[in-house]
Amino acid sequence: MRIILFGSPGVGKGTQAKILSTKFNIPHISTGDILRQAVKDQTPLGIQAQNILNKGELVSDDIMIELIKDTLQNPKCKNGFILDGFPRSIAQALAFDKILFELNITDVLLLTITADEEELVQRLTNRRACKKCGNIFSLNEINGKDECPICGAKNSFYLREDDSEKVIRHRLEIFKNTTRPVLDHYEEKNMVIYINGSLPVDEVTKNIVSAIEVRVEKKNSISA
Ligand code: AMP
Fold first, then answer.
1. Res 106: pLDDT
2. Which of 6, 39, 88 for mutating ligand 1's site (highest number of atoms within 8 Å of CB)?
3. Would 55 be classed as within a structural domain?
4. What's the CATH number where 119 sits?
5. Active site residue: 2, 123, 127, 128, which one?
6. What pLDDT, on a 0 to 100 scale, did the predictor assign at position 217?
7. What is the chain's mean pLDDT, rounded?
8. Is residue 50 part of a domain?
9. Catalytic-residue membership of 88
10. Residues of the domain holding 88
């Protein structure tokens, strides 16, 4: 199974990608996580990307395309993947299509998760990341505690620089102007499934799983 999780910043792509990755036993590839790790490790890519990430802008298409090309050729992606954060521009989508063609991959679905813009601003300003493991939590989940429930690190929660309201609004603008057209590109290829992201996390997961099942059954009945 090969899935692109698509949608505005804060819509829940990362949360759903982690759940689906465990459920279907396929790797979760988050380009944002890869870049944040590179920044943390101060690799040449990280040093180059640091300011761009902090400002909420997009890293160049060339860099991202190379990164994805390398990642998808990794044997761990052989049986499927969940892509979270790529493609984010038409240039990336066209390059991605070429990579899929070269790897003879034809079964990709794009799940687009939707939610109201003000709800997203609210969600993003109310979330905190763990400095040690990078996992994200809402203030509700943290509920005044100072220990990360995933890795156990103490006093490690922080507001990502790109989750400040000003940067969030900028990221939402970039999404509308540069990333949203990717959806139209895949609509034309009949690859898109819409999912309401305003529901509780487990309901969103349930809806994603049944939408995938319906799609796979339909495809199987056509090819039978
Ligand atoms: P995310 O965690 O997916 O919101 O990504 C965090 C940041 O990483 C984005 O705001 C961009 O600066 C950068 N980034 C992640 N994926 C891409 C991509 N496909 N193209 C360009 N920049 C990206």
1. 87
2. 88
3. no
4. 3.40.50.300
5. 127
6. 84
7. 93
8. no
9. yes
10. 2-26+79-223
The rounded radius of gyration (Å) of the Cα atoms in the chain is: 17
Domain count, the chain: 1
Torsion of CA 130, 80, 223, 196, to 10 degrees: 10
pTM for the complete prediction?
Answer: 0.90
Q: Which residues line ligand 1 (CB under 6 A)?
A: 9, 31-32, 35, 52-53, 56-59, 64, 85-86, 88, 92, 162, 171
| Residue with CA at minimum distance from ligand 1 atom 5 | 32
Helical pair 117-125 and 165-174, crossing angle rounded to 10 deg: 140
Residue 31 is encoded by which pair of tokens?
Answer: 């380009």
Residue located nearest, by CA, to atom 15 of ligand 1: 32
The verdict on whether 171 is a catalytic residue reads: yes
For the CA of 88, the nearest atom of ligand 1: 19
User: Tokens 């809402």 label which residue?
Assistant: 138
127 is known as an active-site residue: yes
For residue 222, what pLDDT band results from cuts at 50, 70 and 90? confident
Question: Does residue 51 fall inside a structural domain?
Answer: no
Examine residue 197 and state whether it is found in any structural domain, yes or no: yes
The answer to whether 3 and 83 have CB atoms below 8 angstroms apart is yes
